[in-house]
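Morning, I've got a small favour to ask if you have a moment. I'm working through a protein record and want to make sense of it properly. The fold is given in discrete form, as structure tokens running alongside the sequence. Can you walk me through what the tokens say about the fold? Thanks so much in advance, here it is:
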Amino acid sequence: MSKSERTREFIIERTAGIFNTKGYAGTSMADLTNATKLTKGSIYGNFENKEEVALAAFDHNWKTVQDIVKSEMAKKTTNMEQLLVYVSTYEGFFKYPFPVGGCPILNTATESDDTHPALRKRAADALISWKNAIVRLVDRGISAGEIKPETDAEQMALTIMAMIEGVIMITKATGNTNYWHKVMRSVEQLILDLAV
């Protein structure tokens, strides 16, 4: 890794939590310079503008979430067990090194839906990628005889995602973690009901 690549990575790592907590509009250049201890010129010497830093920060935060889920899935042997990883990792959110500020998809999609097309597209691409990963798991489970053959994989994927993202939003808004646990039990039951 070159010095400039290391510097870019440093900037991304130091600012990812800020963007994920304060959002694009709420993150100032002072936030970036304070977090990195670099000058504005140093930051813009490595990134074209604040938007480019924000996009890289989103990618970093989303990769962090994906890496946690993939790491936990690698410990499982069946497709059903791997599907249930979504319950155990998201319910155990606080024991994993999830990004500061919570779910980057929810945060970014909520902020950028009408104001920032490039960030909205990043969040949408992440959602489609996540949906496709669940669809592949369900389809493999059907092929392996673990999951009922009549299961609509895309419908199941979207339902799981909507329940997880919805309860994150509800819990953040209300501060009531009991809602989190109740909905995650529903996600777990939804997955268990797929079994043959």
Remarks:
- The chain has nine helices and no strands.
